[in-house]
Write a structure and sequence with these properties.
The complex is a heterotrimer of chains A (220), B (273) and C (281).
Chain A lengths: L2 H32 L3 H32 L3 H35 L11 H20 L2 H31 L4 H33 L7 H4 L1
Chain B lengths: L2 E2 L24 E10 L2 E11 L4 E5 L6 H8 L9 E9 L2 E2 L5 H7 E4 L10 H11 L8 H11 L3 H4 L12 H13 L5 E5 L7 H14 L4 E5 L3 H7 L2 E6 L2 E7 H6 L4 H7 L5
Parallel strand pairs in B: 1-5, 4-9, 4-10, 7-8, 8-9
Antiparallel strand pairs in B: 2-3, 2-5, 5-6, 10-11
Helix pairs in contact in B: 3-4, 3-6, 4-6
Chain C lengths: L1 H39 L5 H5 L13 H32 L3 H15 L2 H16 L4 H26 L2 H8 L5 H28 L4 H6 L17 H10 L3 H30 L7
Helix pairs in contact in C: 1-11, 3-6, 3-8, 3-10, 4-6, 5-6, 6-8, 7-8, 8-11, 10-11
Classes of the chains: A mainly alpha (220), B alpha/beta (273), C mainly alpha (281).
């Protein structure tokens, strides 16, 4: 492999590594909510700085590659996607931290009278995140398109949780503080799903050279 | 040199061969089924390509891929070599150039070569050579042609005070622009450029690229280049040649962002050999 | 270290040897020149250039007729030989296909190699015998037979040195082949071609053997091309083998004049070439 090909491979591998790290953080943050696991929450917060570092590293690699190699075709698309994907991943990492912080706050308060089921939304979002990373690794546009469709299901799940929490808050005003925390968590999870969708769109561009943002229906 | 006519008369069509080509109206030039031989060696295999009017088409590919050979057939300059043979049809405005008078064809299709090749005459005489032998001086004055051509080649200001000096007193970049002016002096409809900047420094190259972009409104331009960034900068459409075949021809943006053929992508990403 | 020393030794020796040979070559010219000057300078006088030859023993004779005669013969030979040679050279360089051009080139080279006396005999057989007299014209024809291949080959050589890109540049502007040759190629090669022509003419002006059988000699001015004519080389020959000292001195003088003319032609050719080249650096 020629030196410049190794540079592109290094960029690719670093992105993959960052994706894996963020995916784990998201999983841990969900578990810290659902299982009230304090260790997981703390780990997510610790790993945050590494995620930020990797975003900077990737940006530096990209600018060097542009200046040195004037990349074309698939190389150019990799470099352009790398910036976007790393930005999305970094935002996802931030969101996982916010969820972990909410988890720590909720752990110090009593449980809600009626439990709220985060399982569905958590599974959907985790599945989207892992799928988007897999589609990046394999440059698989078909898998990526599948993710775009899951966005609606996540939306529905969040609305369901929101309704349930609003009912709870209306019935028993002492639950308001805790319910609001859970509401925020649900919003954060939905935002993570949005970022996963962005990554899926970037993978379609990377794999096929097609820009599907903001107009999914036309391209499917 | 033998010219073999195709078995069936081919009418120029307006349907583009690839999805990306943008055609409004008939193409200025069209090559159909070109096979070209140096002796027994087949240098071009079945090449078909259209050149849209007033657009720049770049031909890229590795050394020896046939892009220069193909270009040199467009004004039949390959006929001056010994033992060459061409099959197929090349049309200009729908008429086959292979059967018409070659000197008239070469007035309408001009060429600029890889290394500047000014004649051993003054700057003025270099430019007026083409118009003089084509009888154009009956209608326009020589001084007018010289000034107009030098302006089109972005060289007028630099040489207007030394038109009677030898062309060899100019720098390489200036000599090449002089050759462009000389080619433009006969008012060609098509201008062929064979790696015109390969012997020049970056600044001279930039000047020529700028003037090409300005020229295309008056002229259809075909440029062979081994510099992909140059093709990306100046060309509307780009054709990729490999081993005597045209592999892909499409809008330049498409070729460089998302080419259809693997060989094209391997070449432009530098993963070739 | 000894290998280096030996190598240096061989190097120095060979350089020295080459230098000596070069010196010998150069000094030969100066020796000849010296001899001619020493022996002939005294006889080169105004009379030499203006008077006709007188019988031995009488003073004041000259070689005016030989000078004029040589000029006549060489000029006519040039008028015949240069154009033919020039256009043949163009043909060889620009038009030659495979077989005919090869034949022409081969024949030209053969002609170059034919001994000049054979050329003389040929001209004698072909012109002098049928017309029953010696003439300047026959001499000119013989000399032109020598001038043609020289000119053709040198013209061809200089035309071929013009780069192909210049031809293509002209053709690409819509010029046909002849216009390209006439307006671009020949002007580009003109300095070399002219040099070749000057040297060719200088060469034939000193040829003796062809003239022995054709223009013969004449003690007086000749009145036309169809008469025997005096020429410097033949005069030198005649005077040199005669038993008279007078005549020997005149031969030296003629030799000096002839050599001076040839040298002048060479120098002229060099100046023409060096006064700027007509091709790009």
């Amino acid at each position: 492999m020629r030196p410049f090909e190794e540079d592109f491979k290094h960029l690719n591998d670093t992105l993959q590594e960052m994706g894996a790290l963020v995916a784990h953080s998201i999983q841990r943050s969900v578990l810290s909510i659902v299982e009230k696991n304090e260790d997981y929450a703390h780990q997510v917060i610790r790993d945050e700085s590494r995620v930020d570092q990797m975003e900077i590293q990737i940006d530096e690699m990209v600018t060097s590659l542009i200046v040195r190699e004037q990349p074309m075709a698939r190389d150019m698309r990799l470099v352009v996607s790398a910036i976007k994907i790393s930005t999305d991943l970094e935002r996802m990492g931030d969101l996982a931290v916010h969820i972990a912080e909410r988890a720590l706050s909720l752990m110090m308060q009593p449980a809600l009278p009626e439990p709220v089921n985060f399982g569905e939304i958590a599974n959907l979002v985790e599945s989207m995140v892992l799928s988007s990373l897999e589609s990046f690794v394999k440059r698989d546009a078909q898998t990526a398109r599948g993710i775009l469709e899951m966005d609606n299901a996540v939306d529905k799940a969040r609305h369901g949780i929101q309704r349930k929490l609003i009912e709870l808050m209306q019935k028993d005003t002492s639950t308001i503080v805790r319910a609001l925390d859970y509401l925020i968590v649900a919003r954060k999870l939905e935002r993570i799903g949005d970022h996963a969708t962005n990554i899926a769109e970037d993978v379609i561009f990377l794999a096929q050279g097609v820009d599907v943002r903001h107009r999914v229906a036309e391209v499917a | 040199m033998a010219v073999k006519q195709p078995q069936t008369q081919m009418r120029p069509t307006t349907t583009p061969e690839t999805s990306g080509a943008v055609q409004t109206g008939a193409p200025k030039m069209r090559a159909a089924g070109i096979n070209f031989y140096y002796g027994k060696f087949r240098a071009l295999h079945d090449v078909s390509l259209e050149f849209a009017t007033n657009k720049v088409t770049a031909l890229i590919g590795p050394s020896g891929c046939g892009k220069s050979t193909f270009l040199r057939n467009l004004n039949r300059i390959n006929e001056t070599l010994r033992d060459t043979r061409i099959e197929g049809e090349i049309t200009l405005d729908g008429e086959n150039i292979l059967t018409r008078d070659v000197t008239e064809i070469r007035r309408r299709i001009g060429m600029v070569f890889q290394r500047p090749n000014p004649f051993p005459k003054s700057i003025f005489d270099n430019i007026i050579y083409g118009p003089r032998i084509n009888g154009m001086l009956k209608t326009i004055s020589a001084a007018d042609i010289v000034e107009k051509s030098l302006r089109r080649a972005a060289l007028w200001d630099e040489v207007k005070d030394k038109l009677r000096e030898s062309a060899y007193a100019l720098s390489g970049g200036q000599q090449q622009r002089l050759c462009i002016a000389r080619a433009l002096a006969v008012d060609p409809e098509v201008l062929l450029l064979d790696e015109p900047c390969s012997a020049l420094d970056p600044i001279a190259t930039a000047k020529i690229e700028d003037l090409l972009v300005g020229l295309k409104s008056q002229c259809t331009i075909v440029i062979v280049t081994h510099n992909m960034q140059q093709a990306a900068r100046v060309a509307d459409t780009t054709g990729f040649f490999l081993l005597g075949r045209l592999i892909e021809h499409d809008k330049t943006d498409t070729i460089f962002k998302n080419p259809s053929k693997k060989e094209t992508e391997d070449y432009i990403t530098g993963r070739f050999g | 270290m000894s290998r280096n020393a030996r190598r240096n030794g061989v190097n120095a020796f060979m350089l020295g040897l080459c230098g000596v040979c070069a010196f010998v070559t150069v000094s030969t010219l100066f020796v000849i020149l010296g001899y001619l000057v020493f022996n002939g300078a005294t006889s080169v006088s105004l009379n030499f250039f203006t008077k006709l030859p007188l019988p031995p023993g009488k003073d004041g004779g000259g070689m005016a007729n030989a000078i004029i005669g040589s000029a006549q013969i060489v000029i006519v030979a040039t008028l015949i030989g240069l154009p033919i040679g020039f256009f043949s050279g163009i043909y060889l360089a620009e038009y030659g296909g495979k077989t005919f051009a090869f034949l022409v080139r081969y024949v030209a080279d053969l002609l170059n190699g034919i001994p000049s006396i054979v050329i003389g005999i040929f001209a004698w057989t072909v012109i002098v015998v049928p017309t029953h007299h010696f003439s300047a014209l026959a001499g000119s024809l013989a000399l032109s037979l020598m001038l043609i291949p020289i000119t053709a080959r040198s013209t061809e050589q200089f035309l071929l040195e013009v780069p192909r890109s210049m031809r293509e540049g002209s053709l690409a502007l819509g010029a046909n082949k002849w216009k390209t040759i006439a307006s671009v190629i020949v002007p580009a090669a003109r300095k070399g071609i002219m040099t070749g022509m000057i040297l060719g003419v200088a060469r034939i002006s000193g040829e003796t053997a062809p003239l022995l059988f054709t223009s013969l000699n004449n003690q007086y001015f000749s009145t036309g091309l169809s008469e025997p004519t005096a020429s410097l080389p033949v005069m030198i020959f005649q005077r040199a083998i005669s038993p008279y000292d007078d005549y020997h001195r005149q031969a030296w003088a003629a030799g000096l004049v002839l050599l001076a003319l040839v040298l002048l032609a060479n120098i002229a050719a060099r100046t023409v070439i060096s006064r700027g080249t007509s091709l790009p650096k």
